[in-house]
Amino acid sequence: MDDYMNALNNASVDISGEGLLDALNGRADSSMSASAAPPPVPRKAARNKQSNFSSYEDNLLCKSWLEIGNDAITNTGQRKEAFWSRVVERYNFVGEGKYLKRSQKSIMSRWEYIKAEVNKFSGHMAEMIRSNPSGMSDADKSVAAAANFAAIEKHNFTLMHCWRILKDEPKWMELKSKMDTPQNSSSSAHMLNLNLDPDDPSPASSAGKRPMGRDATKSAKKKALSSGSSEYASKIHDLNVQKIELFKDAEVERKARLDEIVALEKAKAEEAREHRKRTLELEEKRLALDQKRLEMEAEKKEQEEDEHILAINLVECQPIQRLYYQELQQSIFEKMMARRRGPSQ
């Protein structure tokens, strides 16, 4: 009807029957050709893919989750949207200028991955702690748990840094206990057992099968542990070799340090001995000089006294004094004669 009215209003179209029919046919042909053309395919806008999370960003995310979750003011009754909004805000605030600014979707997706992987590893670590193999340290147990994780999950555990942050936190333990409840663990246990059957071509085909029994589960677990035992033994062997090499290097370094200390102590002792020897020699020389000086002073004093006695005029003395000084002068003459003769005469 609209095409008909447009044809009537168009002054260039003949209003006779044939003209009107031709106009309507031309309109229809043009509309059909336009409708037959395929619609243009819209091009998707190119998106800039963000880089993967680094270990430092994982640590920041775990710490942000713990801090917001442990906030005594906002923790009670905190809704999920508000909680994650605060986590994202803290993450981007602390990491500003150091890491990429992440969206809430990206951070929540990364946290779900961290939560699942760390929870699986925690189970392997708890099993290793319960078995408590003799002669294994905590570091050896974590290595063994990582080997069991790799054997069962078919990929390595790469979030050890996150596990160290979360493992002893009450907030994480509370979340882990919720994740380990039957309603949550049934689906995860089913997913863990999907690839244990080599005849099962796809996960979807096992959805309607009967769940594995206790004996079958134990058998599958033993098979997985036995497959990882060789890798575990190899890693333990490598660790022992590394420990022995480190011990040898440390022993060589310790011996070198001891030899250096002994050499230094010997040098110090020799230097102290030489110092004491020089000090004694100097002291002996000083004493000899002092003795010689005292002898010279005594000799000089004795000479002065002898000269004084010899200078006395015996004629002017009283008879008693004359006899006294005469004897002194005589002894002085004898001493002088003895000095002249010398010790050999």
TrEMBL record:
InterPro entries in the cross-refs: NAM-associated_C
Compositionally biased tracts (Polar residues): 180-190
Lineage, opening ranks: Eukaryota, Viridiplantae, Streptophyta, Embryophyta, Tracheophyta
Annotated segments matching region Disordered: 177-229
Domain No apical meristem-associated C-terminal: from-to ranges: 156-332
Organism: Urochloa decumbens
Name of the molecule in the record: No apical meristem-associated C-terminal domain-containing protein
Pfam family, any one: NAM-associated
